[in-house]
Structures
1.
Amino acid sequence: MTVSVDVKKWATSVVVVFATILSYSLVTSSYTAVFKTPLTSLALASATLMFAYFVSSVRLMIIHSRYTGTRLGVSEYYKARLVGNLVGFLTPSAVGGEIGRAGYLSSKGFPFTDMVAVSYYEVFFDVVFCNVMGIVFSVYQFPWTLPVLLVASFTLATWVAISAVLLYAGGRQISNSRAIPGWRGLGERVLLLAANIARAFKSVSRRVGVVDLVYIVLLTSVSQVLQAASLLAIMGVYAARGLVASMRAYFYSQSLSSIPTPGGAVTSEYGLSLVVDPETVVSFRLVYALVNIVPGLIIMLKAYTGKRGRV
């Protein structure tokens, strides 16, 4: 029953994303964009995004191996990244991305709550980088970028605050929830789960060394710049000004994706359209949606059919 409900929710999210792209293309008369954009450009944009995700999977490998003392093959971290991308893309504000990666890694024999902490720690660097860049670039087109500035500032402050709370709580012994009226049953389990995640998050932060942090920040920067640069293939402008424009458009879009819509529907289109033309918006959103949906879906289907085959 749970699986069927999830499938329905995901199907609804997919419909919302593509319906938004279609509506935008009709309103802006850019519905022929995907046919005008050369296939080589669409393929190059897709390949750039996939390579960017591979770079971020190396970052996940560093964090996971430091915490667990075990290193899986890099392909396993890549699969975890792609599954997380799928779940994150189909959930409002990408809140399911960490759960998707944690779920895949826990299928390899690691505790789920620990993997949630690892995934949260990893994505923290993306959140900080994207929103700081969104705030910096929002100066270019103020006041049109006021929504970017507000959302990015709120998201950044929220994630920093939550991380600080996790670090604080992870270093303390949580009191028994039975002493708190109304915390029996489900509330007690939720409190215990939160305490376990906080302890794991604190442990991750302790085990990741200074040298590791340097690599993590570098890999985060490379991955995010590559994702922004994937727009260049569709824009067809490979000069420095093209890279700056693609970064502005991408980070506007990513900052606004914190607004709870499936796959950043509506908000991403707005962020991109502040910089690039409607045709580029439509082509990029289609590429971005497919690259985030198809690989992760294939991995999950293979895992599902593999389990059924062993039954």
Note: Residues 131 and 152 are 5 Å apart (CA to CA).
2.
Amino acid sequence: MFVLPPPPPRYTIPVAYAAGAANGMAVPVVETNNTISHPEGGCPLQVGEGTYTLKDDLLLATPPPHPSEAPIINPNPLATVPNPPTCVFLKAAVSAPQFGDGNSALAPPAAPPAKDALKRRKPKNNIIKSSSSFVSRVITHETSAKRLNERDPNGVFAFANINRAFQWLDITSASKEDHLTKVLFTKAHMLCHDINDLTKTSSHLDIVMGSSAGDIIWYEPMSQKYARINKNGVINNSPVTHIKWLPGSENLFMASHANGVLVVYDKEKEDALFTPENTGIPEKEIPLEILKSVNSRNQKTNPVSSWKLASQRISNFAFSPDQRHLAVVLEDGSLRLMDYLKEEVLDIFRSYYGGLICVCWSPDGKYIVTGGQDDLVTIWSFPERRIVARCQGHNSWVSAVAFDPWRCDQKTYRFGSVGDDGRLLLWDFSVGMLHRPRAHHQNSTRQRTSLVAPNSQSAPRTRANSGANRMRSDSERTENFYSEFEPVTSHPIEPRSRTAMLPPIMSKIVGTDPICWVGFQNDCIMTSSLEGHIRTWDRPSDSVINSATSL
């Protein structure tokens, strides 16, 4: 099952008008239906194992903004497009250590009687009949009920957003361009969402969505029920930049906010005005300021826990396969590794320059890959706690990275990256090549120049990068302060002369607008773009490597 969550928070520019009148006057954008095309022989991906063929291009309709909606300034000086949809592949649910183990206040409720074993608790409010000013309207397709009754129970649902619309789609349907339900919000855009692996069945899905207003929606699409969490920012009033269910938990999910705070919420708890429990902590930037601990006995209301990592925006985070570690990337250019069960920051790494935007773990948990504003993809070794390679091939910000578990084993790895340059890149690396330093030390000066100014059209980004460097300087001043908080290790930036440089095995421009997500399935590769293009490439028929189960 796939979920197509909303965009990274850096793209929240609504498009209110489009040129089209003969006299040059702008006319209001009119909402249209999704469309799909099936290009023949267009945009193939040539890789060593064969050719990936573009199967279809699903274009989501861009809704007009709500009349009360105000434009939001985009921090990327090159971005001029609306909010994208993004996609995330849902992995099978697996067992995990319990968050807050030993705290009786967080103990799960008693098991229901056997006859209710397959029932799941649902939110209380009907979103179709909602009178909330937060929800503008809900559009249910006229054939939705029939399609749900007749669909293959093993089919694939997708959830996607573009601007203020949130769509529920059936990707395996013959008419997958027709949404099942479309929810339009009033002033807020949904910036991120996730489906609970543990509770999903053919008749129930628990979805959490984080918005640009800070509000969080718990949504169950089968029953069209919803609940609003952190209403009006009662716990944290800054935008939700990323959201994920805690591995192995039915109720708990983690949300990162734009003010540098990570919050764990319980979908079934009421909210209360939040006042940090820990006082007397010095007002300096520290690796982790615990505003409320998971071990707090005050667990009657949300939040379950709240941690401040920095004053800058948290861009993204990812749970490790061992389901006790967390990789967090921030706008200040840092990658922070946490043991979230112990509420500890273990290591801090830094980008070459500028903020980090995306992060993922290898299927075996040995490597972490990040991408960001320095146009680089970086591979880090988790067991060795060090950088192992820089990957150069993008000409603009790297917006998403993901491993291909069907082409990974314990010796070789495949991952993909996409960026604002409209490119999809595929990368292969092996353990042996990662330990090999870059061959040509004499080229380091030339390559350093190309990284700072990769092309002649990067003048606007030079100003942005100067700001990023200032942020870096501010953050580096805290390194001595970090050393007072053992066991945190703040790692210096590795000189490029001692860092392996990895080239891509495939680089392809797949769209004229920035690409914001890449995901892998056993039979295809998928991407999504800022204008709402969701593209699917079929794998070569004999290219699937069934090695993921050995990891």
Note: DSSP finds five helices and 38 strands in the chain.
3.
Amino acid sequence: MKLSWKNILLWSLPIIVISFFLWQVVFTPVTNENKTSLTNSRMTYGRFLEYIEMGWVKKVDIYDNGHTAVIEAIGPEIGNRIQKIRVELPASAPELIIKLKKNHIDLNAHPTKNNTALWSLLGNLFFPLLLVTSLALLFRRSNNATGGPGQAMSFGKSKALFQIEAKTGIVFDDVAGIDEAKEEFEEIVTFLKKPEYFTAVGAKIPKGVLLVGPPGTGKTLLAKAIAGEANVPFFSISGSEFVEMFVGVGASRVRDLFKKAKENAPCIIFIDEIDAVGRQRGTGIGGGNDEREQTLNQLLTEMDGFEGNTGIIVVAATNRADILDSALLRPGRFDRQVNVDIPDFKGRLAILNVHAKNKKIDINLSLSIIARRTPGFSGADLANLLNEAAILTARERKNQITLQEIDKAIDRIIAGMEGTALIDSKSKRLIAYHEVGHAIVGTLLKDHENVQKVTLIPRGQARGLTWFTPSEDQSLISRSQIKARIMGALGGRAAEEIVFGESEITTGASNDLQQVTSMARQMVTKFGMSNIGPMSLENEESNPFLGRGMGNTSEYSDEIAIKIDTQIKEIVDECHIKTIDIIKTNRVIIDKLVDILIEKETIDGSEFISIIKQYTKVPQKI
């Protein structure tokens, strides 16, 4: 809760009410008039004189400078009982005193004590003093609080989580699939534990290490392992926690963080998502955020400025290294950049072994099968895969995770939740021909990936799906492979044209056509795989601060643009013609596969290929 005037008023309202009540009750001056209110009986002055003459008056008390008298009298008119009666005296009655003395009546005069001014002064001072004291206690409580309103009074302090011995529960043995990055940090941990090994040969440990990689690859997990292994003070903070709307707060927090770190050196500072504070200075339309730039300048100075930060190792993580300021990346600040990439087969297998420790997996299910079927999965994806499979196993009241649950989990992660199966109708048959068209074209092309599964069960927005097993190495793709993928994507549309006619083609191929156009355009403008020549016509140095597409200005003439469009159309037309020819040639096989698919709703890759082999030769995949 932040401290605001609204919160102050809410806290002060009960105090104001109580103060007003006390002022009225306790500090209201007590006057003689209050004493005269002890009786409600009244008597006129003339009747009072008659009572004196009759000898019925026993005692008289005079108040208010002789203006009021309270008498004790007895008589038949008042039931022969002693009663107190109030009498208002005239302004001048000298004969009264004489009569009272003559009749030997006990007389007491009570002079007025004028304390009104003193009590008014005390009452006026009490309320402001009580309010100021209450607010002072409130502010003091706020300053000492860690999670309450006191954050407003200490917003310049660092919010870093500090641990002398970080017990994260994670060590290097729990980190798998990123062996190169782990070796880098094992070296840093060794330096912190036994620095003499390095200083003996004049070596210096890097001041900063930047972890760069896609989301979910294990950057934060690696930082937790460093904290668990190093046995040195560990500070962890997010880059966004430096940035506030108040000017100078971010820079103040950076100073406070490094001040604490220097007091506990040697230590490790981990800054997660450093791109929130480390973006390039002077960027964006209309200039940058001055407050964020001040924070970055302070961070640069603390990491490698005039004083330096001996004994402090800064570890940072980001998935947007392209937008970081160049001064932040230079040696002396972040000496090393460690890439944490998507794991390969061995890395995925090691990650699965880590996450499968607390899972009950069928002994007949090999983790290598899962690793081979999940190329492109990050460490977080694999952890989520096993968790989803465990949830499905529990839902089906099984004791162990089997390949069936793994398949369902993979499909759910990639394509979404499973929908209701379609009823046998024209729509279902059309979708079956569409999916079989994709699968048979991909199977009969040498440079295309193997088909993994064909299904008519809807998932997400797709009414049917054809899965292909992606190749392990996606970094280098040949021209023939790209064309094979274009033809595979056109297979569904081509099957609709041949079987149902051009007038019956549907919108089901809209996503396929987007992929086809994108691949063909990249062949022409990015990879130089067209008649235009080996030229890259895409602007690779687009400004990420201008938004997607705003900074991608064309650097070629209108004549080249026309040639690009012509080449894209020629590539797509060529692939479309070849795809149509494959569909026409294998129409009998397609009809057979559609009947089987409608009956079973799902055909796996091995069964699909075995059926095709009964009618034609399947090329050996590369």
Note: Residues 116-144 form the longest helix (29 residues).
4.
Amino acid sequence: MSQPLLDKVYLDDVLVNFSVYGRYHAVTAVWITLAMIYSGIIFNNHVFVTEAVQYRCVDNHDARNNGSALFKVSNAHDALSWCTNPELCTQWVYDNPNSFAAEFQLACQDWKRTLVGSAHNFGYMVGLLIVGPLSDKLGRKPLIIIIGLIGAACGLAKSFVNFYWFYVLLEFLEAAIGDPSSPLYMLSIELVATKSRVKYTTACKIGLSIGGIIFPLMYWLISYWRTFLKTLYAPPLLFICAIYYLDESPRWLLSKGNTEAAVKIIDNASKMNKIEIKENLAMLSYEEDASLDFKTVLVATLKSRTLLKTFFACVTWWITSTFVSHGLSINSVFLKGNKFINYALASVVEIPGNIFAAYLMDKFNRKLPLIFSFVACAVLCAVQPFIPNDLLWLTISIYMVGKLVSTTFFTITYIFTSELFPTYTRNSMHALCSSVGRIGGLAAPQTPLLRVYWSGLSTVLFSVVSLIAGLVTILVPDTGDKSLPDTVLQAEALSYTKTDVQLEENRAGIARKNCNEA
């Protein structure tokens, strides 16, 4: 007779022995955060690389020039008027001849500038469908290394490109197979016990905000976009070093039946922290749907009415999060004042936004904080366009608080999504939700074009979308006090389980069934 499952040791029971402040998790967090900083730097660098510049028409035959050789396009309305008759102008000169728009001759083609950002988000959308399943199949660590190196190579290649559509292609590829943030996040969430998930993943995710602070200040200092890209993408070639400083996720190793490797990592971590593991690691086990491959479990996940409803809610959160959070960052350069400082400030407020999210999740779990942050952002975005222009301090303050709250719901969305699906498909479902949700990311870079009609149209749109997401959140169960579900059955049980007691009873029921069959 096979060993009864009741005698086995589960990973969550072992991980509670580790403090996130211990040497092992602290060192790992530093490396994950550094890699996240890189992801934060590359994510929206197109905001400044492809920034708008003023341009003039050189055409001595145009009567509107009144004999002058130059006609200056000073704002969006003038540009719209002039560019509706492009045949009147045969040559353009740019205020900054070394800009992206000038080198690719994008006068009267603002859509080509913003298309770069949409191509990046579309690439990220497609890439998550590739990276997520590969991460579940090949492991977190190999994907982090491979993707980091590919991203660095694509970024360096962009700095040499002279053909616009090739640049767009590289932007797409960089986002699709060159951003390691997804497997990095999944690694951080799987390394710690339930009670430490929020604080550990939040600490690591702050790296994204730090990257958002660094890159506008870098561009302010470097200014020439090609030099900026070379400076930006050369250091990430050191991702190869992750072979030595990162361990694979023990949870992933157990899901693949590689108990020996998982035990070795845990044993080395305990030695680094100078602690003794009381549990018998030789009996370390992992619950999974027996004899089922990835495709079968994924289909089972999506066939479940409960999990399908959860999937719909998660996709709505992601669409809203990417659209509103990234949209607010992109549009921050249009606030009065220094655009580089404004963008950096929008990234700075992400740090307290992450900390605020961690505090709310620690005190009130997941559901109520998510509803609150969506509704709060809706109110702040709705109010912002109607603040008098002469109250600059109030305009920027309301805008930045809105950005802070959007970071709060984005952070909650990240961790909430990963807690609602079984481990065997967690990264894949998280990536699928994130991927479909990048529809919002596709739209966000285009929102500056709405300023032609009304400067406040973007923020009002952000308000409406946030409010809808807050209402949808009512459909899902809370997960703050529950262990990560390992199976589809456990993931479904979240809808009626209130504490870990019921989840453990579910585990025990599965164990008794398997024991009787044995």
Note: Residues 1-6, 60-79, 497-505, 510-518 have pLDDT under 50 and may be disordered.
